Amino acid sequence: MPTKHNGSQARDFPVVRSMPLPLDVRLGRIEDLLLEMRHEQDVMLKRLAKAQAQLDALTGKSPSVAHLADLFKLKQ
After folding, report:
1. CB neighbours of 42 closer than 8 A, spacing ≥ 6?
2. Neighbouring C-beta atoms of residue 49, cutoff 10 Å
3. Rounded to an integer, what distance in angstroms lies between the CA atom of residue 39 and that of residue 36?
């Protein structure tokens, strides 16, 4: 036998309201995330440059990583 739904299920769960964080806190978190992403990018570029140098050494070609040196400089 089907039960009657009287809409009381919506009232069983309390509504949790949260206050948004202040702007300076949110911007600080975004800045921290961007710095972390930049660090990870630098690590990957250094690994790529090292792997490219090893590949160049194995194939006997002249180093082709000179153009990557500009990528390691922090551009303001």
Report:
1. 72
2. 19
3. 5
- Whole-model pTM: value is 0.52
Amino acid at 74: L
Q: Are the beta carbons of 48 and 68 closer than 8 angstroms?
A: yes
What span, in angstroms and rounded, lies between the C-alpha atoms of 58 and 5? Answer: 74
Q: Kindly report, residue by residue over 41-57, the tens digit of the pLDDT.
A: 999 999 999 998 888 88
Question: How far is it, in rounded angstroms, from Cα 25 to Cα 32?
Answer: 11
For the record, the structure tokens of 61 come out as 């070609």
Compute the distance between CA of residue 76 and CA of residue 72 in angstroms, rounded to an integer: 12
The Cα 26–Cα 20 span in angstroms is 9
Radius of gyration of the chain (CA): 27
